[in-house]
Amino acid sequence: MAPIRCTALLFLCALITGCTAEGTAAMKSDEAGSLYAQTPAAQATLQESLFKEDTAAISNDDMARILAAKLEIPKNSKLAVVRFGQLPYWWGWSEDFVRTNQQIDDDFLGALKQANRVKEVAYLPSLVTPRDMTLPHLRQAAARLQADLLLIYRTSTQSYQRNKIFSDDETRAYCTVEAVLLDTRTGIIPFSTVVTEQFSAKKNKQDYDFQETIAKANQQAIAKAWLHLAQNTKAYLASL
Fold first, then answer.
1. CA angle at residue 194 from 192 to 198, to 5 degrees?
2. How far is CA 108 from the centre of its chain?
């Protein structure tokens, strides 16, 4: 009988120990779950800035509305174009330069007019172009012109020369254009681009001096960059 009692006693102890261990494991599991629920990963995804200085420029509610907004560009839009910054000093050097510049402008606007959703294209007249060329002022000027879209671009050029002893001087010009497309109704910029083009030239007999050669190279680099900008803008509007 003694062996039977010992066996029963051992079985009872094992049963009690198992239940205690199971209860402890369950308690630890609950505690772990409670702790895990308090970690940032388990909390709701942040929907607004936690930095007070951010709301001084724009409220969290307005930011959320802007990011959630769906932009609708009219099918027959009027596109206004404005240059940001000053034109190169040589832009009106001579009659030949003026004629070439006019052709560059015509080719640029002509390419933009072929874009999808664009019915009319024109430069923003200097009479209504604000002195303070900030986005709010430019948007207001575009609205006065009843332009649905405003293409704002800035042109910068850089030339490099290599003087040769037994041959004509050679120059290479690089032109970089930064541009943004502004939706006049909402003030949203749905498209931006940066393009760079280059053009090489040698001094010829028709050039008054090497400075004219450099200016002509810059002029041709600008022409290529503006057409590249027009093609990128057309590609964006075609994707809508």
1. 155
2. 21
Alpha-carbon gap, residue 202 to 213, rounded angstroms = 7
* First-residue to last-residue Cα distance in the chain: 91
Kindly state the average pLDDT of the residues 216-220: 90
Report the topology of domain 76-238: Rossmann fold (3.40.50)
What's the whole-number mean pLDDT along residues 175-184? 97
Distance CA 158, CA 197 (A): 11
208: its two tokens: 């008054």
Q: What digits encode the pLDDT tens for the residues 74-127?
A: 999 999 999 998 777 666 777 888 899 999 999 999 999 999 999 999 999 999
d(CA 101, CA 153): 16
